[in-house]
Amino acid sequence: MRLPTKRDLLWVVLAMLVVTAGVGIWAIFSDGVGSFKRRSVTTGTISGACFLALPCLAHTEREYLRHTAWTGIGVISGTAVLTIGGRLVEPRSRPVEQVMASGWIAAAAAFASSITLLARPSRVGHGSSR
Protein backbone atom coordinates (compact mmCIF):
# COMPACT_ATOMS: atom_id res chain seq x y z
CA MET A 1 0.00 0.00 0.00
CA ARG A 2 1.35 3.40 -1.00
CA LEU A 3 1.59 6.07 1.70
CA PRO A 4 0.06 9.46 0.89
CA THR A 5 2.56 12.06 -0.20
CA LYS A 6 2.56 15.76 0.48
CA ARG A 7 1.11 16.33 -3.00
CA ASP A 8 -1.78 13.92 -2.26
CA LEU A 9 -2.50 15.69 1.03
CA LEU A 10 -2.35 19.08 -0.65
CA TRP A 11 -4.95 17.99 -3.21
CA VAL A 12 -7.18 16.67 -0.41
CA VAL A 13 -6.92 19.97 1.47
CA LEU A 14 -7.63 22.00 -1.67
CA ALA A 15 -10.61 19.77 -2.51
CA MET A 16 -11.94 20.25 1.03
CA LEU A 17 -11.68 24.01 0.61
CA VAL A 18 -13.66 23.89 -2.65
CA VAL A 19 -16.30 21.58 -1.17
CA THR A 20 -16.71 23.65 1.98
CA ALA A 21 -17.00 26.83 -0.08
CA GLY A 22 -19.79 25.18 -2.07
CA VAL A 23 -21.54 23.97 1.07
CA GLY A 24 -21.19 27.44 2.59
CA ILE A 25 -22.82 29.04 -0.45
CA TRP A 26 -25.57 26.42 -0.34
CA ALA A 27 -26.11 27.14 3.37
CA ILE A 28 -26.58 30.83 2.64
CA PHE A 29 -29.40 30.17 0.17
CA SER A 30 -31.14 27.37 2.11
CA ASP A 31 -33.95 27.80 4.63
CA GLY A 32 -33.73 27.44 8.40
CA VAL A 33 -31.83 29.77 10.73
CA GLY A 34 -30.73 27.13 13.28
CA SER A 35 -29.46 24.75 10.66
CA PHE A 36 -27.88 27.68 8.81
CA LYS A 37 -25.83 28.54 11.89
CA ARG A 38 -24.66 24.94 12.27
CA ARG A 39 -23.77 24.61 8.60
CA SER A 40 -21.96 27.94 8.62
CA VAL A 41 -19.92 27.00 11.68
CA THR A 42 -19.11 23.59 10.19
CA THR A 43 -18.05 24.88 6.77
CA GLY A 44 -16.17 27.81 8.27
CA THR A 45 -14.34 25.53 10.67
CA ILE A 46 -13.32 23.09 7.93
CA SER A 47 -12.22 25.89 5.59
CA GLY A 48 -10.31 27.64 8.36
CA ALA A 49 -8.59 24.43 9.43
CA CYS A 50 -7.58 23.66 5.83
CA PHE A 51 -6.21 27.18 5.42
CA LEU A 52 -4.22 26.92 8.66
CA ALA A 53 -2.86 23.48 7.73
CA LEU A 54 -1.49 24.47 4.29
CA PRO A 55 1.86 25.89 5.46
CA CYS A 56 2.28 22.97 7.87
CA LEU A 57 1.90 20.56 4.92
CA ALA A 58 4.78 22.33 3.20
CA HIS A 59 7.12 21.20 5.97
CA THR A 60 6.08 17.53 6.25
CA GLU A 61 8.88 16.35 3.96
CA ARG A 62 11.64 18.33 5.65
CA GLU A 63 13.53 15.98 7.92
CA TYR A 64 14.15 18.47 10.71
CA LEU A 65 10.59 19.87 10.71
CA ARG A 66 8.56 16.74 9.96
CA HIS A 67 7.42 16.03 13.53
CA THR A 68 6.63 19.67 14.22
CA ALA A 69 4.60 19.97 11.01
CA TRP A 70 2.57 16.82 11.76
CA THR A 71 2.01 18.04 15.33
CA GLY A 72 0.65 21.32 13.94
CA ILE A 73 -1.63 19.46 11.54
CA GLY A 74 -2.83 17.25 14.40
CA VAL A 75 -3.57 20.24 16.65
CA ILE A 76 -5.43 22.01 13.84
CA SER A 77 -7.44 18.92 12.88
CA GLY A 78 -8.23 17.98 16.47
CA THR A 79 -9.39 21.48 17.28
CA ALA A 80 -11.59 21.55 14.17
CA VAL A 81 -13.21 18.23 15.11
CA LEU A 82 -13.75 19.44 18.68
CA THR A 83 -15.27 22.69 17.41
CA ILE A 84 -17.66 20.98 15.01
CA GLY A 85 -18.62 18.35 17.58
CA GLY A 86 -19.02 20.95 20.30
CA ARG A 87 -21.24 23.13 18.13
CA LEU A 88 -23.40 20.26 16.89
CA VAL A 89 -24.03 18.98 20.41
CA GLU A 90 -24.03 22.51 21.87
CA PRO A 91 -22.92 21.61 25.40
CA ARG A 92 -22.22 25.24 26.37
CA SER A 93 -19.60 23.92 28.73
CA ARG A 94 -16.98 26.41 29.87
CA PRO A 95 -14.16 23.81 29.96
CA VAL A 96 -14.99 22.69 26.39
CA GLU A 97 -15.01 26.31 25.22
CA GLN A 98 -11.67 26.92 26.97
CA VAL A 99 -10.12 23.87 25.31
CA MET A 100 -11.46 25.00 21.91
CA ALA A 101 -10.10 28.53 22.38
CA SER A 102 -6.72 27.17 23.49
CA GLY A 103 -6.68 24.82 20.52
CA TRP A 104 -7.34 27.65 18.06
CA ILE A 105 -4.59 29.73 19.65
CA ALA A 106 -2.18 26.80 19.27
CA ALA A 107 -3.43 26.28 15.69
CA ALA A 108 -2.76 29.93 14.88
CA ALA A 109 0.73 29.59 16.38
CA ALA A 110 1.41 26.49 14.24
CA PHE A 111 0.22 28.41 11.16
CA ALA A 112 2.31 31.49 11.96
CA SER A 113 5.47 29.52 12.69
CA SER A 114 5.07 27.37 9.57
CA ILE A 115 4.46 30.32 7.29
CA THR A 116 7.40 32.19 8.82
CA LEU A 117 9.68 29.22 8.13
CA LEU A 118 8.70 29.39 4.45
CA ALA A 119 10.36 32.81 4.13
CA ARG A 120 13.77 33.01 2.53
CA PRO A 121 15.46 36.15 3.88
CA SER A 122 18.02 37.80 1.66
CA ARG A 123 21.64 38.11 2.77
CA VAL A 124 22.02 41.87 2.88
CA GLY A 125 25.51 42.97 3.77
CA HIS A 126 27.11 39.54 3.31
CA GLY A 127 29.13 39.86 0.14
CA SER A 128 26.51 41.84 -1.73
CA SER A 129 27.41 44.86 -3.84
CA ARG A 130 25.03 47.24 -2.05
Detailed description of the structure:
This protein has 130 residues and is an all-alpha fold. It has one domain (7-117). The chain contains four helices and no strands. It has helices at 6-29, 33-58, 66-89, 94-117.
Give structural attributes.
single chain; 130 residues; mainly alpha; 0% strand
- Major sheet summary line: none
Strand content: under 5%
Query: Which outline best applies?
Result: globular
How many individual helices? 4
Helix content: over 70%
pLDDT averaged over residues: 79
Instruction: Give me the secondary-structure category.
Output: mainly alpha
Domains (count):
1
Beginning-to-end CA distance, first to last residue: 53 Å
Strand runs, count? 0
Please trace the helix and strand order, writing H or E for each element: HHHH
Low-confidence stretches: none
CA radius of gyration: 18 Å
Structure in a nutshell:
The protein is mainly alpha-helical and 130 residues long. The chain contains four helices and no strands.
Give the arrangement of secondary structure elements:
Blueprint: H1 6-29, H2 33-58, H3 66-89, H4 94-117
Helix pairs in contact: 1-2, 2-3, 2-4, 3-4
